[in-house]
Amino acid sequence: MKISMIGPSYPFRGGISHYTTLLYRNLRKTHDTKFYAFKRQYPKWFFPGKTDIDPSQTHIQEEGAQRILDSMNPISWLVVALKIVKSSQDLLIIPWWVSFWAPQFYTISLLVKLLSKTKILFICHNVVEHESKWIDKVLTRVVLRNGGFFIVHSVKDEKNLLAMFSNVKVRRSFHPTYDVFNEVYLDNSIIKKRFGIDGNVILFFGFVREYKGLKYLIRALPEALSEVKFTLLVVGEFWKDKEKYLHLIKKYGIEDNIVLIDEYVPNEEIGNYFTATDLVIQPYISSTGSGVAQIAFGFNRPVIATKVGSLPEIIDDGKTGYLVPPEDPHEIAQAIIKFFRDDNGEKFSKNIARDKHKFSWNRMVDVIEELTFSTDPS
């Protein structure tokens, strides 16, 4: 099968870049795959973090990616579309996650749809993006209308998609596991030595945004710490309102039990944080897919998460972690206490290792093949 992909890859950072690169790596093992990657991703005025360039020394990249798509240059959109049309591809795969990409992806997908017989698959990381406005939903509908096939990673996204288009070919599939971070040297003592940590460690990982519910985790800590001792690592860039979280920490008097690392973590450091951790926690208010849970599973680390998005589909409650209601500090605290009191770390880790095959990249490739070429395209 001849496949074209568009999307971010190195030197751009973040989960979507990692996902798209690893999908390309695995698709090209069995298919003739072209990858049109970004030459420029976000303009500086748009990106809320410090930079969208990956600072890692260990790069997640794959040979053959053609870095020609410029978000701010419409000529590059036309060039990519015409390359796909002229090469008579069987399938075009487009990631979808934020409406910033509406003009670019609409232009490319429309031209490919009108000028070729190439099938178009959108992999929707978010059908409706986090903290979205009405215009985001309108733009999403306009772009996704050009798709013939869709993959989502959660029941919520499947429902959102079907609410927009009631009769589409959609498949819900697990977000694959990120085990690529195991490929570098790991030492579970590095992080503890660096920050002077002893004993149990809990990890909150990734960009800090309102929908991720960090404030509810902070509010849960006094109750949890009254029963078990641990250190919470909060590792990821604060996109805004950092002072609000610092105020909460001071209010509850838990400064000695929290370490804040307000920075994007390079690839070669990610494994050290996860191997130093006993338990990963995701107190999200809302969610769709979850790359963090799949990084955790890549290191066989149990996860406490809220019952939102794909998290209840990924985490086997009481076996690979615990599920709790969103916005409920008491239930978060009780799950932490139960995990450590019952000494569930080793048992849960074995369960994760046993079930990891369900989240493989090979399985994702199978899903793409089954959806797009085992289905009547009419």
Structure description:
There is one protein chain. Helix 10 links the parallel strand 11 and strand 12. The strands form two sheets. Strands 3-2-1-4-5-6-7 form a seven-stranded parallel beta sheet, sandwiched between helices. A six-stranded parallel beta sheet has the order 10-9-8-11-12-13, sandwiched between helices. The protein is α/β, with parallel strands linked by helices and 378 residues long. The two termini are 19 Å apart. Helices cover 39% and strands 18% of the residues. It has helices spanning 15-27, 74-86, 102-115, 134-144, 155-164, 190-195, 214-225, 242-251, 267-275, 291-298, 311-314, 329-341, 345-355, 361-373; strands at residues 2-7, 32-40, 66-70, 91-96, 119-124, 149-152, 169-172, 200-205, 230-235, 258-261, 279-282, 303-306, 321-324. The mean pLDDT is 91. The protein has two domains: 2-176 and 360-373, Rossmann fold; 180-358, Rossmann fold (3-Layer(aba) Sandwich). Helix 7 (214-225) crosses helix 12 (329-341). It is built from 14 helices and 13 strands.
